[in-house]
Structures are given as structure tokens and as C-alpha cells.
Amino acid sequence: MPFNASTDSDTTDRATQDALTFSLERQRAAYRADPVPTLAQRREDLLALQRFLRENKDALCDAISADYGHRSKHETLLAEMFPAIDGVSHVLKHLRAWMKPQRRGVDMRNFMGAKNRVIPQPLGVVGVIVPWNFPINLAMVQLTYIFAAGNRAMVKMSENSRNLTALLMEKMPGYFPPEKLQFFAETGGVGVAFSQLPFDHLIFTGSGQTGRSVMAAAAKNLCPVTLELGGKAPAIVCEDFPLKLAAERTLFVKCLNAGQICTTVDHLWLPHASIEPYVALAKEIVPARYPSLDSPDYTSIIDEPSFDRLIAALDDAKAHGATLVQLIPGPAFDRATRKIAPHIVLGAPQESALWQREIFGPILPIRGYNKLDDVIAFINAGDRPLALYPFSENKETIQHILDHVMSGGVSVNDALFHVGQHDLPFGGVGASGMGHYHGKEGFDTFSKLRPVFYQARFSSLKFIMPPYGKLADKVLAFMTK
């Protein structure tokens, strides 16, 4: 996601800033007029969001495909529409319980008959910065929890989602007024100006580099942030796990959306003896799913710079002595459609581009190992990944990996699917992000968990007010014994 200073004129920058500020002030005024929406109001917002998705399903799929050049409709339905629609249903089931004040204990020696409560209340106006790779999922799922918590939202879309953004800006006013929800296109300078607004909370999904810029801009307003970043998510296949099953599962995730997923398998660790059999399996599995580059089920790379970066990474690996294994027949790539055939890369050295940054494409480097602890040491020497994928049928082995490798989330014996569990919090750690959404934690993220102490009519404090005397001494001695 680009995050550069606008090349437009100062006048345009001021106009952009004024439009954003006006929208924020309008939403904040609406929040102040109705700061704590009822359960019925929140349910109405969530049902409207779900209705929008259902009533515009085909148009949304078509718009996303147009933005990609080609995006499998089945992938959009599976990875975007279903999680968003089903996620609303999940939240509706739990919202009443999430909204209830929590009872907390009171030290009865200090406050006899007093009560403690934690009341979840709306923060106000939440800013959302959405990337291009799963723009419906990463807008609508976040909005689900924002609305569940009773907030209002301003959403800035990616410059690579122009067709989708135009559709959202056209259709969404029929479901939500602008004082509740408003979308913004990236037209140059909007991203910078957006992140500088004094939101009550800002959530960003994208690259670590851009996340640092967003966090720095938000810090000027002391605006709290949730950052959902990326990283080099490893899969580790252990000797005891069935290799064919591991290949079927890791390759499905690696080819989904042509690998353009922040939680995809970035690279794969295999016992040395398993590498050759895995490659042989991959040569059978992938062509059966995608017979050629022009398969309608195979998605394009989002834009030309990303396409060129991936081709350059393959060339760089080859120049460093790596072996490239193309997994579907025909040409290795098609520049006209921006499609790149899935590749396995063997023997790429550490200094090659594939090991220096998140790949974000249909390229799978494989590295062999003898000892599991060597893999753990390698992973721990880098940034903490957003996701970790251990494959083993041995509980002690899995627990050893969980204990010794920290990551944002984990799928055991599969890849990616922890992200789609509505009742699991999703979020990174360290360089892969901070904060959570999904599940109860998502509701809490966009709420102020407000502590409220209710004093009783009678309080022991009356005995320890100045001037202090012997009675105060006795009471304090009792309280501190």
C-alpha cells in the first residue's frame, strides 16, 4: 500500500484535508449526540452490513476481479464474502453478552457494600486503512467489530482497489448515512492525511514499512493503533507427518490468491530426505488444480510493480545458484495478464531477495533441516512472524514449537485457517503487528473498558479522615495486616 507525500498541489492537499476533517467532525458530532447505541441499534447496523454484502455479492466480486486484472470469483467468495457474512452472524449471537457490564470484586475490608463494574463503551470514530489483497474481508470484518462496539467509521481504501472503491462509494450510502460510515478513495495524499486525523482509534492492515509511518503519524495525536502487518510466515513439516497431506495443504494456501496473503506460507522447512518427494508431489498436485496459467481459478498479480518484483526475485535466486521448479506447464509467466506460474525454489542462499523480505506471491522457497531446534533458532533470529504453521502428529513436538517460537497466530497441521476462526483473536506481535480483532477481543479493541466504582452509603474511609487519631491507627492496621 503506497504511503507517500502527495504530488498534487498544496490546494488539493488542503481540500483533501478539509474533506477528511469535515467527515470526522460530522461523525464525532453524531457520536456525541448518541454516544452509546443500544443493542437494537447495533444489531440494525450489523444486519445492514450483512445485507449490503448479500445484495451486492456479484458486483463486489466483479469489481475486485477488475482491480486485479483477474481474480478467481471462487476465491473472492471463499476468502472474502463468506468470512464477512458469516462473521456478522457470529457477532450477532454474542453481542448481548459482550455488551453487559462485567462485575468485579471489591475488597470488603475497604469498601463495605461498594460495587465494581467494567462497562464496555464505544470509543467514538474509528479510522480504517484497508489494503488491496482482501479488501472486502479486511474492511467488512473490521467494520463488524467496530459497529458491534457502537462506533462510527471512516474507511480509506487502497489505490489498487479503484473499481471496488467506486462501487462502495456509490452503493454504501443506501445502507449507512455518512455520519455512520464513509469510504474514501486513495487519490494522492489521502493516505497521509487520513492517518494524521485525531481518530479515537486507527486500524491499519499492510506492510511493516507503511505501518511504521502510520503509527508515527497517529502518535502525534496520541491515537491508539491496531497494526496488522505481515512477515515471513514459516511452515515446518516434521518427519512424522504424512508428506502428501502436508503438500496438499501448504500448496493450497500458497497458490490461493497467487500467494498474495499476509498470512500465507512464506517458506517451507522440510527434513532433508523429504524435499525431493515433496517436489514430486507438488508437480502432481498443482497442475491438477491449475492446468495452465490461463485457468480462471488462478489469480493475477495485482499490479506491474509487484509482478516485476516477483520476476526479479526469481531471477535473483537463479543467479545465486538456486534451482527453480515450475509447477504448471507452459510459460513461466504472462506479462499481459500479470500471471506467474507457481514455483518452488531450492537452494536459494540467505542473501537472495526471497529471504530478505516477505514474498507475497506464488513462490515457495524450501529449506532442509536435520534438527528441529536449528529451525527454531533460525526463525527466532528474525522478526516474529504473523503466522506459524507446524505440522506434526506428536503433541510434544507441537508444544515444543509453540513454546519456543512466538508468532501472531498458529495453525497446527494446516495453514492459514486460524485467521478464519471467528472466536479466535487475530493479530501480530512485534514486527508483525499489535492489537487484535475477531472474537470478543475484537469487540474489546474498539471499546473503552471503562472501570466504574460505586461507593456504598457506608464506607470505612470515614474512620480514617484527618485529623488522624487512634481510631484511624486501628482501622489502617486492620486494612494492612
UniProtKB/TrEMBL annotation:
It comes from Hydrogenophaga crassostreae. Residues 24-450 form the Aldehyde dehydrogenase domain. The active site is at E228, C262. Gene3D superfamilies: Aldehyde Dehydrogenase, Chain A, domain 1, Aldehyde Dehydrogenase, Chain A, domain 2. The keyword Signal does not apply. GO terms for cellular component: cytoplasm. Belongs to the aldehyde dehydrogenase family. Pfam families: Aldedh. PANTHER family: ALDEHYDE DEHYDROGENASE, ALDEHYDE DEHYDROGENASE ALDX-RELATED. GO terms for biological process: aldehyde metabolic process. This is Aldehyde dehydrogenase. GO terms for molecular function: aldehyde dehydrogenase (NAD+) activity. Keywords: NAD, Oxidoreductase. InterPro entries: Ald_DH/histidinol_DH, Ald_DH_C, Ald_DH_CS_GLU, Ald_DH_N, Aldehyde_DH_dom, Aldehyde_DH_NAD(P).
